Amino acid sequence: MKTLVAFILSSLLVLAGFGTTDASRELTTEKFRSGVSGRVTDRNGAVVVRARITIVARSSNRSVNRTTNDEGQYVADLEPGTYDVMAAADGFKTGSRKSIPVLRDSRSYVDFVLYESQGVTPAR
Fold it and tell me: How many domains does the chain have?
């Protein structure tokens, strides 16, 4: 009975990653970098290509700019901290998210749904 319990415990430790070699752990552990990623779409779910993303560090007021790709996605590697993130595109109202935490070795996901801006009717 003690042998069975010891076998079960050692199997659980191996499955949890304890008692494995560094080489095998490295193959199964994903490496993350700190930062913000997301996707920008319109209210119908269509991607917004070339949306301008501005990320501002709350501690220093320094900003990082990105542009969405053909899938409406953006990625920014950042130092850990708290950030405000804005998304803007021609013909759309600007979207913003405040106080987004970015933790060490993690990525925060900030998606935006942008709404069409109201056009100004020209005077006749």
Answer: 2
Provide the 8-state DSSP code for 63. Answer: E
The answer to whether residues 24 and 82 belong to one domain is no
Domain extent at residue 71: 35-114
**CB contact at 8 A, 82 and 98:** no
**pLDDT tens, position by position, 16-56:** 444 433 433 333 334 447 999 999 999 999 999 999 999 99
Q: What is the pTM of this model?
A: 0.69
SS3 content of the chain, % helix, strand, coil (to 5): 20, 40, 45
Residue 5 lies in a domain: yes
Angle at 49 between CA 45 and CA 50, to 5 degrees: 145
